[in-house]
């Protein structure tokens, strides 16, 4: 089953002086359920822009993004926010945790947005905290956590709703080599055991090689696909 269908996507940004800067040129690709896909490419090639379009955090000039058979562009803001919370997990390079909430409260947030029952919120949050090895750090604020721990919280927050699609933008980019490897191991363990679909933007060749499919982005265009392991 195709979980993601991207068709003829075009995105440009307005510039103060001359013509708009086109960042994504007529990009199309599909991703099947359970696939792991790495998107690589030079800095500035448009990878983060593409991820924002896939997550429905930004809108394309033309073309469409379809997830689970539903077009993001057809949804109003409320529907899109709910759809995103329910089906898409997002992990950023800079963690993006809420600074005034504890690790556990950050993880509980998506479940609260989706109005889960309090006992389900408690059960799910405790389970993912254990899965990412942070049950002893659950009451810490983000400022009291290391980079690796913060990214584990972000992974737990992305996975707590059991999304169909996990989007990760440079998930190890802000971590030292060892911590990055541990976080990557954790991420792939969790993705493999759940059968989840993951798209990961990365400069890290080892991380890309662990994905089943590699897509190379160059100057806003997708180059020929290559297979990972
Ligand atoms: N909001 C914006 N307004 C104007 N230009 C933008 C905006 N966001 C990104 N750009 C430009 O679009 C291009 C692609 O940026 P993007 O962040 O998608 O690249 P990237 O491949 O993710 O880069 P990196 O690997 O360095 O993170 C760059 O030239 C960038 O300057």
TrEMBL record:
Known Pfam families for this protein?
Answer: ABC_tran (PF00005)
Keywords in UniProt for this one? Answer: ATP-binding, Nucleotide-binding, Transport
- UniProt keyword Manganese present: no
Tell me which CDD domains the record gives.
ABC_MJ0796_LolCDE_FtsE
Every copy of the ABC transporter domain together lies at 4-229
Per its UniProt record, what SMART domains does this chain match? AAA
**Cellular component aspect of the GO annotation:** membrane protein complex; plasma membrane
Presence of the UniProt keyword Iron-sulfur in the record: no
Write down the InterPro entries for this protein, in alphabetical order: AAA+_ATPase, ABC_transporter-like_ATP-bd, ABC_transporter-like_CS, ABC_transpr_LolD-like, MacB-like_ATP-bd, P-loop_NTPase
Q: Which family does it belong to?
A: Belongs to the ABC transporter superfamily. Macrolide exporter (TC 3.A.1.122) family.
Report what the protein is called.
Answer: Putative transporter subunit: ATP-binding component of ABC superfamily
| Gene symbol of the encoding locus | ybbA
């Amino acid at each position: 089953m195709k979980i993601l269908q991207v068709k003829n996507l075009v995105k440009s940004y307005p510039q103060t002086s001359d013509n708009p800067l086109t960042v994504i040129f007529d990009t199309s690709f599909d991703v099947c359920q359970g696939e792991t896909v790495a998107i690589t490419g030079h800095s500035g090639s448009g990878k983060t822009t593409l991820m924002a379009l896939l997550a429905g955090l930004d809108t394309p000039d033309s073309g469409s993004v379809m997830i689970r058979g539903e077009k993001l562009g057809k949804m109003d803001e409320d529907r899109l926010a709910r759809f995103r919370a329910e089906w898409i997990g997002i992990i950023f390079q800079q963690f993006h945790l809420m600074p005034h909430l504890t690790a556990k409260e950050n993880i509980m947030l998506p479940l609260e947005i989706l109005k889960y029952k309090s006992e389900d919120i408690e059960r799910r949050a405790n389970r993912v905290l254990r899965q990412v090895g942070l049950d002893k750090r659950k009451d810490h604020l983000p400022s009291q956590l290391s980079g690796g721990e913060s990214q584990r919280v972000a992974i737990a927050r992305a996975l707590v709703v059991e999304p169909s699609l996990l989007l990760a933008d440079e998930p190890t980019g802000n971590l030292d080599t060892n911590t990055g490897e541990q976080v990557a191991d954790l991420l792939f363990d969790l993705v493999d055991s759940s059968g989840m679909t993951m798209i990961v933007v990365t400069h890290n060749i080892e991380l890309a090689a662990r994905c089943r499919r590699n897509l190379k982005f160059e100057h806003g265009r997708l180059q020929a696909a290559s297979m990972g392991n």
